[in-house]
Amino acid sequence: MENFEGFQLNRQLLNAIQDSGYQSPTPIQEQAMPLVLAGHDVLGIAQTGTGKTAAYVLPILMKIKYAQGTLPRALILAPTRELVMQIDVAITDLAKYTDIRHVALYGGIGPKTQIETIQKGVDILVATPGRFMDLYLREEIGVKELKTLVLDEADKMMDMGFMRQIRKILEVIPSKKRQNLLFSATFPPRVEELSHEFLEFPTKVEVTPQATTATKVNQKIYELPNFKTKINLIGVLMSDYQTFKKVIIFCRSKEVADNIFKFLERKIVAAGKVRVIHANKGQNTRINSMDAFRDGEVQVLVATDVASRGIDIEEVSHVINFDVPLIYEDYVHRIGRTGRANHNGEAITFMTISDEYHIQKIEKIIKMKIPREALPQAGLTIEETPAEEQKAMLREIDNQRKKEDPDFKGAFHEKKDPRARAREKAKKQTGKSPEKVKAAFKPNGRNYGISKKSGGSSSSRGKKK
Ligand code: AMP
Predict the structure, then answer these.
(1) Whose CA is nearest to atom 1 of ligand 1?
(2) Pocket of ligand 1, candidates 53, 83, 85: which has the most ligand atoms within 8 Å of its Cβ, to mutate?
(3) How far is the CA of 128 from the centre of ligand 1 (A)?
(4) Whose CA is nearest to atom 20 of ligand 1?
(5) Which of 59, 245, 321, 455 could form an S-S bond across to 36 if both were Cys, CB 3.0 to 4.6 Å?
(6) Which atom of ligand 1 is nearest to the CA of 47?
(7) pLDDT digits (tens, 9 = 90+) for 344-375
(8) Hey, is 75 helix, strand or coil?
């Protein structure tokens, strides 16, 4: 949509929008506003900075129209005092040509002024769950007229332990004819659960951090022949701890995560500077690891897909996809963890021949081609691909082709010499044959803590020759 005139907003709001300098709606506004205006429950996945506040505030102002009675008709809950104040300021700006009354309720200061404002009559409450409940229990807040409820930054509210309070609030406010809106930056399972409890037939709108992807995150792909070379490259990169300051390495399985962790801990990074999180680690261990990483005590966090859903760590220097994510949207979410708030970040993806298919799909989603970069020359040992691993990759490629074309019979058995292909690939990347590369950097014959059985993902598991 070109401008805000296309929404069913009144003149007062359109004038305020113009004063705010908004020329055209942001993607979340374009998607969410018509739904909210039509009275639907909406689940919005959007981060701060996307214009999500106006996406729900404008329709709420439209619905409330003008000051009426004394009891509030809309309640917006947000996790922190800062966010509550920020939302309240947005309402002040956008409601400036209306007589709508609103108040920000948060802790850290005495409630007297807040109570006085409520008593004078108020249309919209913006509150932290704690202060809302506190004033409700003192019988300072009448909830009978509440017809719209917003939970903003739901993921953060849950991280901060507000779930019980939110449930209580949901119990005390009338549910009949109530419109519910839930906004969250991420969509981990617990937010999904909450959305089922709280929303009725919601429409989900999502703005992935695609803009961020294209602008601030430098993305690249390293083409690698096999699992062991991937491990070698992790070693080379992580040794440069001044560049790779705060890194998350994503991989597909617990075994691979544990192996990368052991390898880095034993040979590459300083003591205590690497942690691993996956489903087998207890909740407390995971939380401790994430806190240590967030605080900068830990340089590298190795994580599986499962454990990484809903990780709310931002501003990492590098995201490394040791394995290409098979849920393609995860790529966008993963790399969204870097390059936030004007920090430049880098997202590096390791690609074997059997990953090319998945990369193409990802490139379609992000609407750009991820640049392929030459492998770092210094210190990297290119390993020969074990026959088993090569076979597994070729089989996977066959399966991918079959998926695209059910008539495809499979080319795997026709391949003359799979290893020749791998050699060619390595040669193309380095300009040298694997043997020469190995000679130049001296084969070290190290095991890297990868046992024959547990090392490697399903696509890249191979026996040591
Ligand atoms: P939010 O994601 O709601 O925190 O908004 C981020 C910033 O974007 C705020 O400073 C808003 O004032 C601003 N903003 C919201 N909508 C628009 C728009 N349509 N055009 C330009 N700026 C906007």
Answers:
(1) 51
(2) 53
(3) 21
(4) 22
(5) 59
(6) 2
(7) 688 999 999 999 999 998 888 887 889 999 99
(8) strand
**CATH number attached to the domain at 4-206:** 3.40.50.300
Nearest Cα to 383, choosing from 222, 255, 268, 227?
227
pLDDT on residue 256? 94
| Cα torsion angle, 448, 283, 183, 192, sign | positive
| 217-383: CATH class | alpha beta
Cα(178)–Cα(166) distance, rounded to whole angstroms? 16
What is the DSSP track for 25-49? --HHHHHHHHHHHTT--EEEE--TT
- Residue 150 CA to residue 32 CA, distance in Å, equals 13
Ligand 1 centroid to 141 CA: how many Å? 30
Cβ neighbours of 177 (radius 10 Å): 7
- Cα 400 to ligand 1 centroid, rounded to whole Å: 42
Element holding 364 (H helix, E strand): helix 356-366
Identify the segments of the chain with pLDDT beneath 70: 1, 208-216, 283, 306-314, 337, 339-344, 410-465
Residue 278: per-residue pLDDT: 81
Query: Which residue carries 């005390």 as its tokens?
Result: 172
Which residue lies with its CA nearest to atom 16 of ligand 1? 51
Which residues touch 438 (CB under 8 Å, ≥6 apart)?
381, 382, 383, 384
Instruction: List the one residue out of 383, 388, 393, 384 whose CA is nearest residue 356.
Output: 393
Phi and psi, residue 249, nearest 5°: -105, 120
User: 177 alpha carbon to ligand 1 midpoint, in Å?
Assistant: 29
Residue nearest ligand 1's atom 14 by CA: 51
Name the DSSP class of 151.
E
Q: How far apart are CA 330 and CA 312, in angstroms?
A: 14
Is 4-206's fold the same as 217-383's?
yes
List, chain by chain if needed, residues with CB within 6 Å of any ligand 1 atom. 22, 25-26, 29, 48-54
Give the domain ranges of the chain: 4-206, 217-383, 418-462
From the alpha carbon of 29, which atom of ligand 1 is closest? 19
Going by CA atoms, what residue is nearest to atom 8 of ligand 1?
51
Which pTM value belongs to this model?
0.53
